[in-house]
Amino acid sequence: VAELLLQYGADPLLKGANGKCALDEVGDEQMESLILRYVPKSKRIALKGKCSINSQKLEKTKERANHNISADKV
Which of 36, 40, 51, 67 would be 21's cystine partner, CB 3.0–4.6 Å? Predict the structure, then answer.
């Protein structure tokens, strides 16, 4: 369901009433990777202003996603 919403333009960086975005609320690595695929690279740099996720978490998730893609190719 989440991927379908993202495919149709749901903004993963939109803050809810609690002031948090989807990346702040994500509970598992697969969902985090899915959400990050729909965050444009240009916005990843500017996440501080829209979402409380930090750049270290982004890099760690990016590395995990790249590792998973490499493992799938084998």
Answer: 51
